[in-house]
Amino acid sequence: MALIIDSDSSAAPPPADLVKDSDTEHFRIDVIDASHEVPVVVDFWAPWCGPCKTLGPMLERQVRQFAGAVRMVKVNIDDNQALAAQLQIQSIPAVFAFKDGRPVDGFMGALPESQIKSFLERLTDGAGNPVDAALDAAREAFEAGQIEQAGAIYQQVMAQDPANVPALAGLLRCQVALGQLDEVAQALDGLPAELTNKSEIRAVRTALDLARETAGAGADTAALEARLAADPADHQARLDLAAALYGANRAEAAMEQLLESIRRERDWNDGAARAQLLKLFEALGPTDPRVVAARRRLSSLLFS
């Protein structure tokens, strides 16, 4: 299966009216009446308001991720001063939430995205963000070796939220796992600078580098194991064996070999085993249970 990063995925996009502009004339229809169907969040803003430029896009992004469970209406107070006065808007950004025709919650000023998500979860009676749930399902599928299923889920998330960095990184990881290394390299090279510095994307780059380094190395596993059986202190053979095991999709066994090398002689070759182990940690991701266990063992070795 070829996974293609393409906004024209067959997954159905969210409704186009999840986020819209409104004014005094249409406020009752767009907010009061609409809030009888789903909760409506109203963002009161103005072009001259600096914090509004930060809050607005984050709020819109989160609303879209709730996939129809909540809607957002944007009102420019400069163009709708009577409405702002009626609702006693004294400072912006100001966000009001309407449900069943009346205001039920709100906040003033810019909030971090995590608090915006919590605000929307309260408004939707604790309903979780469906995009987060989909990402969890994709991660579980990937860790279970169901690479194509994971890739399909990541593609669906990106069809709904093209700017979702975890979904993009997850999709690229699937392509690495499927051996589509040239496609991943091309996709990474085409990303804007603000994305290449994201930790998730850096991890994909590391995973790609490791995949290229270890491509075809699995065939050497038996010979390297024989060398180690003859000389357990052969650190180069152990390092090469770790690369071969990783190339054979045996990441846990690869980390085991690197940890053993560190246990025997942590500073061998300027700490080559530790450097390689850290690359594996980054490539697999900090939440991977194999990484969590190996990182705990590494700490014990280094600080015991």
UniProtKB/TrEMBL annotation:
Keywords, in A-Z order: Disulfide bond, Electron transport, Redox-active center, Transport
SUPFAM superfamilies xrefs: Thioredoxin-like (SSF52833), TPR-like (SSF48452)
Gene3D superfamilies, A to Z: Glutaredoxin, Tetratricopeptide repeat domain
GO biological process, one term: cell redox homeostasis
Ranges where the Thioredoxin domain occurs: 7-125
GO molecular function annotations of the record: protein-disulfide reductase activity
Entry's Gene Ontology cellular component terms: cytosol
Family: Belongs to the thioredoxin family.
The protein, known as: Thioredoxin
Naturally occurring in which organism (per UniProt): Roseospirillum parvum
